[in-house]
TrEMBL record:
GO terms for cellular component: cytosol. This is Leucine--tRNA ligase. Its main location: cytoplasm. InterPro entries: aa-tRNA-synth_I_CS, aa-tRNA-synth_Ia, Leu-tRNA-ligase, Leu_tRNA-synth_edit, M/V/L/I-tRNA-synth_anticd-bd, Methionyl/Leucyl_tRNA_Synth, Rossmann-like_a/b/a_fold, tRNAsynth_Ia_anticodon-bd. A motif ('HIGH' region) lies at residues 41-51. Gene3D superfamilies: 2.20.28.290, 3.10.20.590, HUPs, Isoleucyl-tRNA Synthetase, Domain 1, Valyl/Leucyl/Isoleucyl-tRNA synthetase, editing domain. Belongs to the class-I aminoacyl-tRNA synthetase family. GO terms for molecular function: aminoacyl-tRNA deacylase activity; ATP binding; leucine-tRNA ligase activity.
Length: 869
């Protein structure tokens, strides 16, 4: 038979699916709903292998669930706002809109060539006016609910690019693009009150068993709930700045109070300012802390520095004890109260600080098994549990008991007319700053009126559209410089007003697109009954890099939309799967990276060598890395699809590694996948004429039964594998099935027994449906060859005969003195005694025993039999 030609076949079947509108979903169609979604792409220009892997996995799930009779929603869209479009505008003088939509057109074509079972009728881009119009409606809803608000906040300001930078964009204190020294500026910015949901977002994680534990842990840490105490320390009258009596710290360890050796405040703390009033040295230090204070992430590792304020505080549990108050660079103004008491023995930062400034280090918690007399702290703080020491009346108690006892006591102690302490729950989570001083984003629909202040745009005036005529010849936000766009009428007083020129963080766009997919053309953000019919997403698939922000924002936004009446669900994603990366060998010609397309690999005496095709020179094979432009180790999906077809690419993506691990892309692997495509085609197309119209005679002989067993067992196994997303296991099973069927059907001719032909026909028809989720085009071609009706993509999953799943007999290996000598075949439910009897009947066992009883006979049920002679 002819070789399978994907280039001719694939577009034909893609057109057939589209013509049949096979993947267009109707909410009221029969079948249990199943919503499967892959993280939508940023339209950067072209799809990469990471997309291929991600979308193939989602497609297998979608096609499988559809075959199981479910009503599947599998949509696709574009996360289309963001900086790269503006960068392209600055560099190439192309409008961000044109750049974005051109990229979308290219990438849509690429995705279509993969044969994904997507409902393209629901496609949208977040930069479509239709979409951001509804996002503006949602913004106003959040504003009404008090979930959106404005406040001053510190930002990293790039004075050259005239823009706010995210923390990740500040590298060694400089802007990532301009290289300019970053300034800390106070700007009034828009925020979403994600902290209002902190507890709910935390508690909700427990109800997501289908999320990877590591992602849940990352979210827990990000929310960072801690139970502690707000504790006021009296300042000594002689040293306190005028008008200040006390200092409130936040501590999670009031049990360690007897180990305290200093207090410290953040550089921005009012007490620092007050103390510095006539101290130029302290003023200079505070200034320096402010300048270098941008990188909060470095707090743990940065050198701990501080300066005394000259102020002393009184210990809450011993009025005779005075402790110095420092300004310190490791205390953050944004957390707790911006002030701490330091207990060096039990906190690493405090210890580093104490060692640098010669402060006492008194352990107050003794680890289990340590001796109080000999226990001391070196360079590592002890943060574990134990027993209190050096803590007067609390000695011998546990830290947690002591926490409660100290908290109770100080809560009922009076200091200057109020309780000295108050229990408090703190969160690391901050409100979400959504303002971006950028053009290519969703405009924040508010106005600034001279008389009325900040006024939300009237709903009937939405959408606030981005102007088209913008220039990118200068740095900064083009909306600020637009001659007319800002001018508007105040919806409240009718007077002149100026539009807000901040646009929304693109994470807002991606925080609800999955809800919009349920009713992508609705006038309102959602149709609540339709959203309720589809949400939550059963299976969400994407990269681990979104484990924190995107998923947390989406969980928050879903709750906020729920509270504004747009849907009932709280959690957007019931199941989450994070796939591994696609990695590839790297090649180097001297200092230059070389692309795999320019490399030929040969094996010389078992050693792999690389040659550069364009120059003929020998080059070095480097480490295996994530595919990236900088290392040039990328393989373009288009090239693979053009030379091998989409099915080969899809099959290889699924086959080599567990889906949560990295997969190494190799030419050999792709070729192996392609050989399998051809092999499967040969098996089906050669057998098809012989087995077509075969009918069983109702009596299955041994061969027919074994063929049927293989088919039914594989069907069961593949279904289980796909449901667990163990795609590589499913692939392995299908390889085995093809091996087995090739062996039994090879050379089958017209005279073969009817039972075998019928079993073969059934098995091949099953096989085609089992591979269909992974290699949908090849499946159609085979389906047609077998003379089956309709499209394979519309066929239902083969039903499995449970009787064929279980063997009636078991084959156990028999060892004599530890060496395998043969097998014993017994009934599946045979007792130990029956296995023993059958073993002793075996010829080779009898010979070995030579008439003697065995020294020992050990039966490991279902596994093995050991005979010791
Ligand atoms: C005394 C103490 C003793 C502390 C001890 C820890 C260990 P989490 O769990 O993250 O909430 N802290 C409080 N506010 C801070 C700020 N603005 N900047 C830097 N550190 C701050 O951490 C709470 C602990 O972090 C608090 O408990 C405080 O130090 C410190 F053996 O108080 B602790
Ligand atoms: Zn007004």
């Amino acid at each position: 038979t002819e070789r399978y030609n994907p280039r001719a076949s694939e577009p034909r079947w893609q057109a057939a699916w589209a013509d049949a509108k096979l993947f267009e979903t109707k909410t009221d169609a029969p079948g249990e709903k199943y919503y499967v979604l892959e993280m939508f792409p940023y339209p950067s220009g072209r799809i990469h292998m990471g997309h291929v892997r991600n979308y193939t996995m989602g497609d297998v799930v979608a096609r499988y669930r559809r075959a199981r009779g479910m009503n599947v929603l599998h949509p696709m869209g574009w996360d289309a706002f963001g900086m790269p479009a503006e960068n392209a505008a600055m560099q190439n003088k192309v409008h961000p809109r044109d750049w974005t939509y051109q990229n979308i057109a290219t990438m849509r074509g690429q995705l279509k060539s993969m044969g994904l079972s997507l409902d393209w009728s629901r496609e949208f881009a977040t930069c479509d006016v239709d979409y951001y119009h509804r996002q503006q409606m949602l913004f106003l809803d959040l504003l009404d609910k008090g979930l959106a608000y404005r406040r001053k906040s510190k930002v990293n300001w790039d004075p050259v690019d005239q823009t706010v930078l995210a923390n990740e964009q500040v590298i060694d204190g400089r802007g990532w693009r301009s290289g300019a020294l970053v300034e800390s500026r106070e700007l009034t910015q828009w925020f979403f009150k994600i902290t209002a949901y902190a507890d709910d977002l935390l508690a909700g994680l427990d109800a997501l068993p289908q999320w990877p534990e590591k992602v849940r842990l990352m979210q827990r840490n990000w929310i960072g709930r801690s139970e502690g105490l707000l504790l006021r320390w009296a300042l000594t009258e002689e040293t306190a700045p005028e008008g200040v009596k006390d200092l409130t710290v936040f501590t999670t360890r009031p049990d360690t109070l007897f180990g305290a050796s200093f207090l410290a405040v953040a550089a921005d703390h009012p007490l620092a300012e007050a103390a510095a009033r006539d101290k130029p040295e302290l003023t200079a230090f505070i200034e320096e802390c402010r300048r270098t204070g941008t990188a909060t992430a470095d707090i743990e590792t940065a050198e701990k520095r501080g300066m005394e304020t000259g102020i002393f505080a009184v210990h809450p549990l011993d009025p005779t004890w005075r402790l110095p108050v420092y300004v310190a660079n490791f205390v953050l103004m944004e957390y707790g109260t911006g002030a701490i008491f330091g207990c060096p023995a039990h906190d690493q930062r405090d210890l580093d600080f104490a060692r640098a400034y010669g402060l006492p280090v008194t352990p107050v918690v003794l680890p289990e098994g340590a001796e109080a007399e000999s226990f001391s702290i070196g360079t590592e703080a002890y943060v574990g549990d134990g027993t209190m020491i050096n803590s007067r009346e609390f000695d011998g108690r546990s830290p947690s008991e002591t926490f409660d006892a100290v908290a109770d006591r100080l809560e009922s102690t009076d200091l200057f007319g109020a309780p000295q302490a108050k229990r408090q729950v703190n969160y690391r989570l901050r409100d979400w700053g959504i303002s971006r001083q950028r053009y290519w984003g969703c405009p924040i629909p508010v106005l600034h009126c001279e008389t009325c202040g900040v006024v939300p745009e009237a709903r009937e005036n939405l959408p606030v559209k981005l102007p088209d005529d913008v220039a990118f010849d200068k740095p900064g936000n083009p909306l600020d410089r637009h001659p007319t766009w800002r001018n508007a009428k105040c919806p409240k007083c009718g007077g002149p007003a100026l539009r807000e020129t901040d646009t929304m963080d693109t994470f807002v766009d991606s925080s609800w697109y999955f809800i919009r997919f349920t009713a992508p053309h609705a006038e309102t953000p959602t149709k609540p009954d339709v959203a309720n019919a589809w949400m939550p997403v059963e299976q969400y698939i994407g990269g681990i890099e979104h484990a924190i922000l995107h998923l947390l924002y989406s969980r928050f936004f879903t709750r906020a939309m729920r509270d504004c009446g747009h849907l009932a669900a709280s959690e957007p994603f019931q199941g989450l799967f994070t796939q591994g990366m696609v990695v590839h060998e790297t090649y180097r010609d001297g200092r230059e990276w070389v692309a795999p397309a320019d490399v030929a690999i040969t094996e010389v005496e078992g050693e792999r060598r690389a040659k550069r095709l364009s120059t003929g020179s020998d080059i070095a094979i480097g480490s295996i890395e994530k595919m990236s432009k900088s290392k040039k180790n990328v393989v373009d999906p288009d090239d693979i699809i053009a030379s091998y077809g989409a099915d080969t690419a899809r099959w290889f993506m699924l086959s080599d590694s567990p889906p949560d691990r990295d997969v190494i892309w190799t030419e050999a692997g792709v070729e192996g996948a392609h050989r399998f495509v051809q092999r499967l085609w040969r098996l089906v197309s050669e057998a098809a004429p012989v087995i077509a119209n075969a009918h069983g005679n109702g009596v299955d002989d041994e061969v027919a039964t074994s063929i049927r067993r293989v088919a039914h067992r594989t069907a069961q196994g593949v279904a289980d594998d796909i449901e667990r997303l163990a795609f590589n296991k499913a692939v392995a099973r299908l390889y085995e099935m093809v091996n087995a069927l090739s062996a039994s059907l090879n050379g089958l001719n017209a005279d073969a027994p009817a039972s075998i032909k019928a079993a073969g026909r059934e098995a091949l028809s099953m096989l085609v449906r089992l591979v269909a989720p992974m290699m949908p085009h090849l499946a159609e071609e085979c389906w047609q060859a077998l003379g089956e009706e309709g499209l394979a993509a519309a066929a239902s999953w083969p039903s499995v005969d449970p009787a064929l799943l279980s063997d009636d007999t078991l084959t156990l290996p028999v060892q004599i003195n530890g060496k395998k000598r043969g097998d014993v075949v017994v009934a599946k439910d045979a007792s130990k005694a029956e296995v023993e009897t059958a073993t002793l009947e075996l010829d080779f066992v009898k010979t070995a025993l030579a008439g003697q009883p065995p020294k020992r006979l050990v039966v490991v049920p279902g596994r093995i039999v050991n005979v010791v002679v």
